[in-house]
Specification:
The protein is built from 15 helices and three strands. With about 350 residues, it is mainly alpha-helical. It has three domains: about 5-115, Orthogonal Bundle (DNA polymerase, domain 1); about 130-275, Intergrase catalytic core (hpI Integrase, Chain A), CATH 1.10.443.10; about 290-350, no CATH class. It has a three-stranded antiparallel β-sheet with strand order 1-2-3, with no helix packed on it. Helix 1 packs antiparallel against helix 2 and helix 6 (about 130-135) packs antiparallel against helix 7 (about 145-160). The longest helix has 21 residues, at about 75-95. It is elongated.
Length: about 350
């Protein structure tokens, strides 16, 4: 039986996050999903007495499920659940006197058990390379859908934007003469956590020419500025039509288009998001100064360069080999930024 006050306290904290701190509704839903584990673990015990419950919450999460599936929770889910739980208790201790018996050291130890962490393994970072995107761009298309799919591959790689943002992007947000994309929710596109930024396209002329031809088509058809740039197809697949509405599932159409064009180009299908990975790897590999590294990170709307490096652009095995085997091969000192980048990438792969 769930303790009613526990449920009320958790919902009040989520209300605070949404209406006082202004957190996005998606964040609120995720936090509620994580904290459901907490109130189910506590059962009839009030959360201010959580330090007395056995087994401990981190141990409980090793076997917990609330969705009927047989397998254990993933390590990342456990990690995020405990991170959210720590934030909840820190808030509760500060604002509600009945929680003050929970000391800071107990809260700090709400971390994953050591034996729950996945064993280290070699990871092959998968993304679309420039060569693969060029292979897609070189495909001779026979249908309008294939042409549109080719445009999607080029635009996703050049911009590094997320698929759902691309699916909801209106014409007014694409400024090709200045190679700009307005990822501004008030103008129409959906962005992660409702962030807003003006971002820029990679300067790769052969890919830009394909994107430009599609943009010219929309202009010639007289589509409104608020119409979707990745225009929907009519049922016969022979023409596109003007629409300013992007349903939430529209990124699925992009996925289906990418599957189609990858098959025709003889390129392994990954996912639309892997064009974003490819964009970052390409841009990051050409960045030589801290200013350029920061620009790459800002252009994909990351909060900091650590996210860009550790999550998206760690060096591949071949890149690490090429750098290491060429150390000392010439009298020219290796650029300090490149050395730091290599160290960070190796740390990320070993962590």
């Amino acid at each position: 039986m769930i303790h009613r006050q526990n449920w009320i306290d958790v919902r009040e904290w989520l209300h605070h996050l949404e209406h006082v701190q202004g957190r996005h509704e998606k964040t609120i839903r995720k936090n509620w999903m994580y904290l459901r584990h907490l109130i189910e673990w506590a059962d009839e015990t009030p959360l201010p007495q959580a330090h007395r419950i056995m087994p401990t919450f981190p141990t409980y999460l090793q076997t917990a499920r609330n969705d009927g599936k047989a397998r254990s929770l993933s390590y990342i889910t456990v990690y995020k659940t405990l991170s959210t739980t720590r934030m909840y208790f820190e808030f509760a201790v500060k604002h509600w006197p009945r929680y003050q018996k929970l000391n800071a050291s107990w809260i700090d130890f709400l971390i994953p058990n050591r034996d729950s962490k996945p064993q280290p393994s070699l990871e092959d970072h998968k993304y679309y390379s420039l060569e693969e995107v060029r292979a897609i761009a070189a495909v001779s298309t026979e249908t309008l859908r294939e042409e549109r799919a080719k445009v999607a591959a080029c635009m996703l790689y050049l911009s590094g934007m997320r698929a759902d943002t691309f699916a909801s992007l209106p014409r007014q947000c694409v400024d090709l003469p200045n190679m700009r994309v307005y990822q501004v929710p008030s103008m129409g596109p959906r962005t992660k956590n409702n962030k807003a930024a003006i971002t820029y396209l990679l300067n790769i002329p052969d890919l830009l020419s394909i994107v430009q031809r599609w943009d010219d088509r929309l202009r010639q058809l007289g589509f409104a500025q608020t119409a979707l740039w990745y225009a929907p197809l009519n049922h016969d697949g022979m023409s596109i039509y003007e629409s300013a509405t992007a349903i939430k599932e529209r990124s699925g159409a992009i996925r289906d288009d990418i599957i189609l064009i990858c098959k025709k180009a003889g390129v392994d299908y990954l996912s639309p998001h892997r064009f974003r990975h490819g964009h970052i790897v390409y841009a990051r590999s050409h960045a030589r100064t801290q200013e350029e590294v920061k620009a790459v990170s800002q252009n994909v709307m990351h909060a900091n360069t650590i996210i860009t490096d550790q999550v998206y652009s760690g060096l591949t095995g071949d890149q690490v080999r090429n750098v290491i085997t060429n150390l000392g091969a010439s009298n020219t000192d290796l650029d300090k930024t490149e050395i730091l980048r290599l160290i960070d990438a190796l740390k990320a792969q070993l962590s």
